[in-house]
Write a structure and sequence with these properties.
Elements: H1 2-22, E1 36-41, H2 43-46, H3 57-68, E2 73-76, H4 107-111, E3 117-121, H5 125-128, H6 133-149, E4 154-157, H7 166-183, E5 187-188, H8 215-227, H9 230-234, H10 241-259, H11 270-280, E6 283-285, E7 296-298, E8 301-308, E9 316-318, E10 326-331, E11 346-352, H12 353-359, E12 367-369, E13 380-382
Parallel strand pairs: 1-2, 1-3, 3-4, 4-5, 8-10
Antiparallel strand pairs: 6-7, 7-8, 9-12, 10-11, 11-13
Length: 384
């Protein structure tokens, strides 16, 4: 009975997903769906250091996003002198000798602005005030608990170098390491290349006060935010909740059905794979179902899409002739070909036709992609 119910649920979810796509409940491209990024921080995020406010990293980032889509917004709630306590949820009661959250700038206030994502940049004030790494992490956990409840992604920058006492500089370095270990892919490196080995600011980036960065330093920070790919990762957040929940249920059901030895292949997910490519790329599926050697286009480039969610080790097998210019492969949450350490449900790989001919060809003349191929670095990931 349990097997029948699972199979029924799986089959039931396929038309739900199809209906969502047909009815236009699909995700919009970033050029059509405006983002609102809220920045929480202290004096660096507020713009202290560079010779002109337009050179501050937040304002550079605002100009960058508006250049992509003039409807994108960056709202800056940063204020000089602030530390993690100022941004914990409104109503929190900190220890007696610690500051209370600012009702106009805390995480609660940030959510009143309906953010698409939040970036927190608190470089060194916690260390300067003598707050322990444990306190700082506890405050971040309180902030993130609110964000997770709202399904809004949060990126946290590392600490930054500052010309403090040796003990406080050690605090900065310990918090830097904790930021990487606790927040993983949501951590943004604001330390490497800017700091000396002892935790002080490299003179090339010091605005002159031993605390803040100059124009060049702020440009580095801006580039680090761009490099972490907030915009690309946010594409998945435009997915409607109905689709998101249906996908979670679908792949949970298929995993159980595979355990019952009912699902043995991967072909049933082709349409879902193309939908996910629409989410992550400017991919437009072909309207005709007739064989053509490719599945859709990105601009003028013909694209073949392969989706593999097989838990039994079935490789990606390509059939000639190749009529495509590019190949996109999506590995699903149950796929045994997935590389270690990637937590997001979907992993995207993108190859040119020339790369396919070189990397996929076996000594027997066939074109096959196995587990080793997918351990060499992916293009994008998507989490539900």
């Amino acid at each position: 009975m349990k097997k029948k119910l699972l199979l029924f649920a799986c089959l039931l979810l396929i038309p739900i997903l199809a209906r969502c796509q047909v009815e236009g409940v699909a995700l919009s491209d970033s050029s059509e769906a405006p983002l609102t990024i809220v920045v929480l921080g202290s004096s660096t995020a507020a713009g202290t250091g560079p010779s002109h406010i337009d050179s501050a990293w937040v304002n550079r980032y605002r100009a960058y996003l508006e250049g992509i889509n003039p409807h994108h917004k960056v709202i800056n709630l940063a204020k000089g002198g602030y530390a993690t306590y100022h941004f914990i949820p409104w109503g929190s009661v900190p220890p007696q000798d610690r500051p209370k959250p600012d009702p106009a700038r805390c995480i609660t206030a940030a959510f009143s602005l309906n953010p698409s994502a939040i970036i927190i940049n608190l470089p060194s004030n916690d260390a300067a005030y003598g707050y322990s790494v444990y306190e700082q992490l506890a405050n971040y956990e309180g902030i993130l608990a609110v964000a997770h409840g709202q399904d809004v992604p949060v990126w946290i920058t590392t600490t930054q170098p500052r010309n403090l006492s040796s003990a406080k500089r050690q605090n900065l370095m310990d918090m830097r390491d904790s930021t990487f270990s606790h927040f993983g892919s949501k951590a943004i490196d604001f330390w490497t290349g800017i700091a000396r080995e002892d935790g002080t600011i490299d003179s090339r980036f010091d605005c002159g006060d031993g605390v803040h960065l100059n124009d060049v330093g702020h440009r580095v920070l801006f580039e680090r935010v761009v490099d972490v790919g907030v915009l690309d990762k946010m594409k998945g957040s435009f997915m409607e909740r109905e689709i998101r929940e249906a996908l979670k249920e679908f792949f949970s059901a298929t995993k159980k059905l595979a355990q019952f030895d009912i699902i043995r292949s991967y072909q049933y997910t082709k349409d879902i794979g193309m939908y996910l490519c629409k989410v992550m790329y400017d991919f437009e599926p072909r309207k005709s179902r007739e064989p053509a050697g490719y599945d859709g286009v990105i601009g003028t480039s013909k694209v073949q899409m392969e989706f593999n969610n097989c838990p039994r080790g079935h490789p990606v097998v390509l059939e000639e002739p190749f009529e495509f210019d590019e190949l996109i492969i999506v590995l699903g949450p149950n796929c045994s070909l997935r590389p270690e350490g990637v937590l997001e449900e979907f992993i995207f790989y993108r190859f040119t036709r020339e790369e396919v001919l070189k990397k996929f060809k076996t000594p027997g003349g066939k074109y096959i992609g196995g587990k080793n191929l997918f351990s060499q670095g992916h293009d994008k990931v998507l989490s539900l």
